[in-house]
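Example record

The entry below shows one chain as it appears in the dataset: sequence first, then structure tokens.
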Amino acid sequence: MASLLKQRRPLHILHQLEEIRRTGALLTFAGIVLGGIILVLAANLLAGRSFADQYRVEFGTRADRSLIAGMHGPERDSLGTTYRWSRGESTVKLFGPATDQPSILEFDLGWLPPGTNAPRSVYFNLDERAWMQIDVPNQPRLYRILQPPGTLSDGVATLQLRSDTTIVPPDDRPLGIRVDAIGLDWEATAWPIPSLPVLAAQVGWRSAGCIWPAG
């Protein structure tokens, strides 16, 4: 008898039960995502407050491929140091925490191309705005330059380099300056928040772990 009553349950009640089930599933998913956002933000903030942070890209490695434009292919010198030559105009993207605190640009340069009159003037644009000029000598040198406050407000800094070039036969490539590495330092006292793409990836990974736990 009970099974017959269950089969005769009105359709509108079944639809209501299905709506309740779907609403519950949506609320559960929203709770997981919201919890993931809170946990990821807390982890990023605590990590940024606890440690001095640095972002560094060694040029001539796989890590730099998606960050550069207008540079020649990777090379390696006799000491094993990887690098790239810039062209007349080159661009580098650097990533850090979304913070208004000042950051420091590290610029690790090598020798100038053979036959170049030293120093070579290099002009820098920061986020498409004229920023500074450096007269680069013919010797390896590490520069540490304070960037304007707010440079990392969106978590990304776009650095554009412009210089004269030299052709060193039999190589017919126009060579600007040798770039070994570029990096960013920011204060550990800042409250770093990851940029939106990084935050989305972190939250997606965290939420996926909650929804589909490992075996």
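Notes for this example: The chain has a mean pLDDT of 78. The chain is about 30% helix and 35% strand.
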